[in-house]
Amino acid sequence: MIKFQNIIKSLAWIVLVALPQSALSSQKQDANANADYMNQIAEVFEQILENYVDPLNPQTLTASAIEGMLSSLDPHSTYLTENALQDCLTQIGEQFCGIGIDCIVEDGQIKVVTPIADLPAEKVGIQAGDTIVAVQGMKTRDMGIEKTLQALRGKCGTIVEVTIQREGHSRLIDYHITRTTMKIAPLKYHTYGDIAYLKISSFTLNVATELKKAMHKILRDKKRLDGIILDLRNNPGGLLDSAIEIGEYFLDSGTIVKIRYKNKESDLRRARQSAVKAPKVPIALLINKGTASAAEILSGALQDHKRAIVIGTRSFGKATLQALIPLNHKNSSIKLTVGKYYTPKGHSIDGKGVKPDLLVESSLIPNNIKDYESKSVKNKMITSLQKHDSNTQAQMLYNTDYQYRRAVDLLTGISIANYKYSKGLSTE
Fold first, then answer.
1. Which of 10, 25, 69, 169 would you label with 369, given CA atoms 20 to 30 Å apart?
2. Is 102 a catalytic site residue?
3. Domain 187-321+336-422: homologous superfamily in CATH
4. What does UniProt give as the signal peptide span (predicted)?
């Protein structure tokens, strides 16, 4: 059997000879200590292979050890085998068939960060915060994140059984979900009267460009614009640079995000004054428990700069930066947390989330409002809306989505108040 201690000693020597002479005295102790730790791992590895009663695959055992180290750090650091890495790259660059969820490992359990809008998981009722207990009857604790994600994917049109545990529910819930192509539209938009609605589902490579094009079209078609609803609900994040570019579009200047690394000064990403800017109208920004990562960064930036009023529920609380670090062995990699994000005012989002300025617990219309709005009142409201905008999607959202409605009402109220103020009229 190959002696792993010899390999580790060789690696430690390579590290030492590469260091500056002035640093050797202090670094040598650290290197020796690290070598001792690795010797412990190697000793356990050899004892398991030599004495464990059942046959073992050394490669599987090594992968489990690496996964164990990374999972002890945080929910977002993980080991990617060659197959897992390929799956990861496929999700970024190509289409695949699945149910449409973004998830993480938390305390050994696989938790849904957000169901992606208009895809099967959301349509059947899976919610942010749900814990996936089993897939096709197999417990996810035994499967791990890689095998769980593989089980959720499959041929388009096939059905997968997903069992979830929901907070506040004593019983498990089974869903039978039909897989479909994960073709995600990162941006949807419409107008409600003189209010622009922009929903970003994910921060993809070109979403900032698409958003600016959408706003250009809206401004071309509208004589006036009273406000913007920026909907980041159930947005799991995506590319940081895309979120920063959108932040730059809405902010005249100032810091968008602070990134703190282990041994480096904070990296401040600022809005360029020369960049194309959005019209100076009020913004209502919608968030919920499924708003995470880059979406939280944008929310925190607009909130700190008082550029937007944040409406909804507290966001997920995932504000760490991961780097994909390739390993020498068989095209595997590790995804490692290397930095943390902070809002322009220095607030930490990780584990806490963004707190809304206006708490609106549910997107469902409360029963008391439903009761108040008689059929005749609803018909008058819809008729009034049709005079301003023929968009049936806007009508449906206003009638069914309470958070959306509160955003519309808020921006409408601000517009009326501004008009009265400009005319010298009383706002009482």
1. 169
2. no
3. 2-enoyl-CoA Hydratase; Chain A, domain 1 (3.90.226.10)
4. 1-25
Domain ranges of the chain: 4-56, 80-181, 187-321+336-422
Whether residue 304 lies in the annotated active site: yes
Q: How confident is the model at residue 116 (pLDDT cuts 50, 70, 90)?
A: confident
pLDDT of residue 145: 73
Pick the catalytic residue: 74, 226, 304, 350?
A: 304
- Rounded Cα distance, 319 and 147, in Å: 25
Beta strands at 159-165 and 255-261: parallel, antiparallel or unpaired: unpaired
| Domain 80-181 top-level CATH class | mainly beta
- Of 70-79, 109-118, 304-313, 317-326, highest mean pLDDT: 304-313
pLDDT bin (cut points 50, 70, 90) of residue 405 is: very high
Integer Rg of the chain from CA: 26
Which pLDDT tens digit goes with each residue over 3-13?
433 433 333 33
Q: Which pLDDT score, from 0 to 100, does residue 17 have? A: 35
Question: Does residue 387 have a pLDDT over 60?
Answer: no
Q: How far apart are the first and last CA of the chain?
A: 85
E strand map for 64-155: 78-80, 97-98, 101-106, 109-115, 131-135, 138-139
User: Which of residues 145 and 327 earns the better pLDDT score?
Assistant: 327
H/E element, 242: helix 240-250
Rounded to whole angstroms, what are the CA distances from 16 to 12, 23, 101, 262?
Answer: 6, 10, 45, 21
Catalytic residue among 111, 199, 318, 335: 318
* 3-state secondary structure (DSSP) of residue 350: coil
Written as six digits, the tokens of 304 are 């700190």
CA distance 110 to 401: 29
Instruction: Classify residue 83 by its DSSP letter.
Output: H
Tell me the residue type at 384.
Answer: S
